[in-house]
Amino acid sequence: MAATLPASGSAAAAADPQRLTVDLGASEGPVMLGANGSLYGLSDDGVPSDAVMEPLKITSISQKPEGGAQHPNGDALTVSKSFFRAGGGEINVMMQDIYAKWPYEDLGIDDYLPKVDKIVKEISADPNSDRFVYIPFNEPDQIWYRLDVQDQAQYEKNRDRFFKDWKTVYQRIRAIDPDARIAGPNEAAYHTRLLKDFLAFTKRENVVPQVMTWHELGSGSLRDFQAHYDDYRRLEREAGIAPLKINIDEYANRRDLSVPGQLVQWVSMFERNKVFANMAYWDAAGNLSGHVVRSNIPNGGWWLFRWYAGLTGNTVKVTPPQPNTVDTLQGLASLDTSRRQAQVLLGGADGDSDVVVENVPRPVFGRTVTATVAEASWSGYEGQHAAPRVLARTKVTVAEDGSVTVPLRGLHKMSAYRVVLTPGGSGTPAAASVPWSASYEAEDAAITDGKVYTQGTVSNANGYAASGTKDVGSLNQPGSKVAFTVNVPEDGAYDLAVLYGNQSGGPATQKLSVDGADPVTVTYPSTENWTYRAKKDVRVRLEAGSHQVVLSKGDAEVTLDRIDLTRHTGAASASYEATLADIGGRPSYDYSSSAGVGTGALVLRSGDRAVFDVYAPRDGYYTVTPRTSAAVRLTLHGEKVTAAPGHPLRLYLVAGNNRVAMTSGHAAVRSLDVSGDGSASGTLSYEGASATLAGGAKLVDSPHASAGSSIGWLGNSPSSTAEFTVTAPRSGRYMLVVHYAHNDRRDNGHAYNTDIMSRTADIRVGDAAPRKVTFKNTWSWDDYWTVGVPVDLAKGANKVTFGNTAAWAPNIDRIELGRVVG
What we know:
The chain is mainly beta.
């Protein structure tokens, strides 16, 4: 059941709904967006893609020094190219990650200092050196110095050694880079004893860090962080040190990452206190700590951070039902008087809630507001998530006391919700269309030759997230199966989403049967491990009533978590509200009418720009329709096209997120509407077997490639190339979509990090200069993913050549090309 908002805007009948209060009259200061950072969130230039990073407005990340031996990728200077290109803020350099072992090998300060010199010289020589922060020590309370020992005499001995080394390294950094910003002490956990001594020492010796860092990694941090923060600010005051910038440069556990309802609890407490924070690195680098599927596809957690990045103006006071309590309803909110918008993000609890917004300013909003409610659900770490569904659009009268109550019913604790308030104006918002949907837990189904496992609880916080904290594994016997009893309201097509894990080392299958009918094969792409959840979508036809849906063992082992059934109502569609888009210039906001999407119109004039984040479930053509008062110009993949008001365009979108920019001389824009399932009609497709291969590149058998083979042994030599001849029906900008696979890894000996490698290929079109493109690891040699690259083709024959002079390129299954404007 989805959250609902009664049409009257009054509180629906419910048994004691929780109350989350938002006070628009109590400002906490400008929105900072500090909590969207990530440790090893980037692995390479282009992983993740610019299109998924740019919308998040990431303020800080933490990466290793160039050439650091701790991990095979994630070098700070290397990833800085795409991070800064996508509008990122600053990069923390984890200097001790120059070492190979974990915990770091303790070879003494004399061994470390030459490494410090090399790191600082390289970074200080970079044109963006002022955007880097040096973190000379990582978790010294546990590593090298054991500052967490209980014995006071031993603590003081260890402390004095650490303080001596801190001063030495601090001064060494400053000797090379006098303007360097240095962060620390960077404890694994908060320690009052150490911080009190540290502040006194660093002040006395003139080596105070510019940024204060520590880690908040346990579930208890949701309860304790506020006390830690308040205590630290007290220590500063007592030491006579002006408030330092704080970066909690590792936060959250596996059970939190990717889960919108968990993340909103962490983000709200960090944003409320105006501190920066980076999510922890428990698994693979290059996916923003578990929030980007493949390289460019959002999951539910990504959308929570996209909403967070959309907060503008000032944050305001939010009072949750149970402040500073683990796994409870929490939230954050903003008020932007210039845009005349209030936004509330909340989540973390099942059941019913009333969002009570107090002190709604009448000069800003008027006598009525439109309340728009949307949900970002949990889709797994590697499960794609379409643009969050709007659950309700309702005009509400502001009460005499200046409050508005937005009742939410049937909340899901793993979901996050966004409530947007805008002036009501005239007209009526279009009713939200929410298809019937139901979820069924695998552990509640009939299980044959399988086992129920518990995952990701408070007591096992570093276990992976699972729906309901349980899943069904060990489905590895010939008779293993899970039988779900489902009930649907009407005859028709239903979308079946399976949350699963595939640990088999390649694509795996199960047999799907409904009511004993002949089974069909469901193929599951690989996942990092059997608990790193992904989502597989299948369509089934069902008659009204009860059915048995059975998933039984196929050719390998797959773990099942949950299935979702949703009534299929036609091609996917979404309306992206213009007043909630990213903007450039100084557009104005017109709320005279709440018709359509309900959130008014964005008025663009010369020099203004709106940027929409448009989701596509697969590579292909979609219908894109601007709801505008006058002609606008759209820019997509570097191509520009003029669109008349309400006139549909056929545009090529790549799988995942696409940034579509809109400009106009003068137009009021309500929304950008997008529909379709990714048509391949009109695209060009070339199998690997059609390419001319040289220098050792050759076809290799691959049962999961589209034609049974792919191009392997490509690159690692200037002569090793694959040349496709493609025939373009007309000249212009095309998207080149490369279907590829590779499974490069380097085991750095870290039990909890999966050290996957990326590969690159140099792609040359005709006689143009080659372009280096990065291809993320696909988890196996038989899983084929796609990367889209914009290219310009001339009408007629064009040569598209792949190679890599210095290293191996990925295996290439096939390529597709679609003109951006179809």
